Model the fold of this input.
Amino acid sequence: MSTILAIESSCDDTGAAVIKDGKILSNVVATQDVHVKYGGVVPELASRAHQQNIVPVVDQALKQANISKSDLSAVAFTRGPGLLGALLVGTSFAKALALGLDIPLIDVNHMQAHILAHFIDEPRPRFPFLCLTVSGGHTQIVKVTAPLEMEVLGETLDDAVGEAFDKSAKLLGLPYPGGPLIDKYAKEGNPLAFEFPEVASQGLNFSFSGIKTAFLNFLRKEQHKDASFIENNLPDICASLQHRLIEILMSKLRRASRETGINEIAIAGGVSANSGLRNRLQELSEKNGWTVHVPAFQYCTDNAAMIAMAAHFKFEAGEFCGQDVSPDPRMKL
Done:
């Protein structure tokens, strides 16, 4: 029996959630609009916004769950990976609250939490399963044999796929965050209108820096011939780019499934909200006999409910941390 308050502050969303005996009672997120005019997350502004948001977000999460601080069994927080300044806010708050209430402290790996978001609702994946974790900062294929037993089979050697989406969107003149807008316009375009290269990478690892460079050169070449090229072809450009990025992801995932013999497949992370990726995964599930798991949209992007679920498993395993814990911006899975 446990009631845990979880805090998420790895990037630009401040989140708090309450989980009781494995069931999410509340999940509150405060987004930061300040970054839009800069075309990306500004770390210093993110940490300042977390300081402003964390108290009201935690208060709202407790009220929605109808839980008082004295009911809590533990406090959990995102230790990493993420932006150091942002992580510091959540870590410091969690440590102070746990110390004041004299209850245990649980540090959570943000990427592990993305994967464990699949256990918030039914149907839940069966072990072992493969999880393609795709976000603005990470792209990984992870073999999951138990809630707290995970092995990275492949990961990006340079940029994450979410960064490729967002930076390509910026080249198209789309506002931040641009990834969802590429997905929006792609629905209206022809995915085979333009061809972009598939950059080679060893084994199950990924590489996306090459396609970003190729996309930049493509736009420069076409705009030199037609200054209105982007404006006149935006849906086709978005559909073609998204098609290539998704195929890069799917080719590695198919290979991982073949090599491991695992047909239980999951996706997680912010980019898993992409409709093109979801549709392609469903197509491949029918073709390859996969059982596919996709979290609810609210659990794909950064949120505290996934931190809470990871904390629930760590609480059951008796895995706590001390007050000497510090954030780890480059925390490995």
